Amino acid sequence: MTPDDDQLRLECGVFGVFGTPDAAGTVALGLHALQHRGQEACGIAAFDGHGFHTERHLGHVAEAFSGGDLTKRLPGSSAIGHTRYSTAGGSFLRNGQPMFADLRAGGIAIAHNGNLTNFMTVREQLVADGAIFQSTSDSEVILHLIARSRKSRLVEKFIDALSQVEGGYALVALTNKKLIGVRDPLGIRPLVLGELNGKAVFASETRALNMVGARFVRDVEHGEMIIVSDEGVESVRPFPAARARPCVFEYVYFAMPDSVVNGRSVYDVRKRLGRRLAQESGRPVDVVVPVPDSGVPAALGYAQESGIPFEMGIIRNHYVGRTFIQPTQDARELSVRMKLSPNHAVLAGKRVMLIDDSIVRGTNSVRVVRMVREAGATEVHLRSASPPLKWPDFYGIDMPDRAHLLAANRTLPEMARLLEVDSLDFLSVEGLYWAMGAGARDPHNPQFTDHYFTGDYPTRLLDREIAEGLDASIERQLSFLVDA
Question: What topology is assigned to 268-454 in CATH?
């Protein structure tokens, strides 16, 4: 995330099929439905009964995997795929997925959504032991751990490798004989199991199942590994029992509204977020206007609860390519205007309630507010359909550190002045849990991963702890030298 970037980047998307004719084509179609989860790179790995065929490309799925020759390029009846936004490792093709390794126990390709919080610690130990890495992605660590495992069977090696990593992840893996789907012990990252013509399908979101015509079977449960082979579907639980804590930000922002995540309709939850927001921080205004696109369901809920008309006062241009986003301030201002344009007929002379899904740095928010004022709005009020973002994420969301999060070190009036709004408010944490239908938040054992709002991280952050320890040690040494 660049210093001026105000958009949270979606983690990654994974998809896999087993025993399906033209598996690569089916995976490509599924990845189209998951494009929103990662737009930097994409890849597919297929197995044709004799060997693996893998392609990874920078850019979008449509650019990389269109055309009628896909079956020839990636033959096979089983395949996995990945859409990527870099969280661990840079935006380079060498960090693209799926990643493949030809091991003594057989070939294996993996595609990973999430982030390992002990990635650097494990990687440094592997390098010290002689491992040679081809990428800077945390996913490659898992392949090295599989390769070094002393277990006999490949599935056992996979389990052994995952027992040594920490964090949030949803993985699909393809071997010579099996398709495997697994979620981290807390179920932080999502993964679902579907069925297509009697064969198993894995996907990050249910909308990808809908895209290929597959039937939703169930969520892969937290800490569960599902192994698919010609013999059938097997479920194992290789990790110590723990209470599920799925990422609540999937409902606020990441997942698409037409998906169902952990049994909850994302669209319904977002409308409930808006309803509760209207109850908590209503204001007499003339129109309710969403910041498109992710603010739309919450704005609908707000309008329905408050009785204030819902209007599309800001129109999004879906045809602006990434080439228009430039590093200069003037170009960034222009890019906002190219993506979002004011609907003067709706805004002029009106008291406007803007509804956004969340506020990160605030840089984009202030540009939108200025745009609405320039269109003739007499008042501009801003509401966030999520609580204030105060803490960074380490489980697959590219989020600024605390120093760059608008709400981390400022009061509500200070933020309102910076954003140039007549009033500002955020949904409460209690309101978020109400919208999830989860009852009151249990402070001793929260039902969701919600650290970005509360600072309550669900796992230890080993790499972070070590880095902070080193920083403190260096600071002490510098202080000693200065005093000396």
Answer: Rossmann fold (3.40.50)
